[in-house]
Amino acid sequence: MADLGSIREYPLVVGIDREEDALVVRAAGELDLATAALLEEALWQAFEQHEATSIVVDLTAVRFIDAAGLRLLTWATAGSRENGHRLGIRCGAGAVRRMIETTGAERSLPLIA
Asked: How far apart are CA 57 and CA 27, in angstroms?
């Protein structure tokens, strides 16, 4: 992941890595209305990489997520379903997992370990 400065300067840091045939979009910090566009841009880039067999959104380092972040995950899931179910979301056990479980979104999001 590119070092974009401190989390204080950049509330969300996003990077894309390749792991074998998968693209991993990693985010760290706060995923909210003010920062969701950063992750959305990275997801667009990942979706355009047709040679990747899967795309993993790694949110294990996200310490806060709001409804805008959850909406983005729902959008990405819908887009993935239209293009062959290539997306998986790794959310860990922190704030993202709590938000997903509180809202019941685990039934519709492609969560992976």
From this structure: 8
Q: For the segment 29-47, what is each residue's pLDDT rounded down to a tens digit?
A: 999 999 999 999 999 999 9
- How far apart are the C-alpha atoms of 109 and 80, rounded to whole Å? 11
Q: Count other C-beta atoms under 10 Å from residue 94's C-beta.
A: 15
Terminal Cα distance for the chain, rounded: 20
What predicted TM-score, i.e. pTM, was given to this entire model? Answer: 0.87
Total number of residues shown for the chain: 113
Token pair belonging to 33: 């209305």
Which regions of the chain does DSSP assign to beta strands (E)?
A: 12-19, 22-31, 54-65, 87-90, 111-112
Inter-residue contact 100 to 111 (CB < 8 Å)? yes
Catalogue all structural domains in the chain, each as residue range(s) with its CATH number: 12-112 (3.30.750.24)
Distance CA 79, CA 20 (A): 22
Q: pLDDT tens across 58-97, in order?
A: 999 999 999 999 999 999 999 888 877 789 999 999 999 9
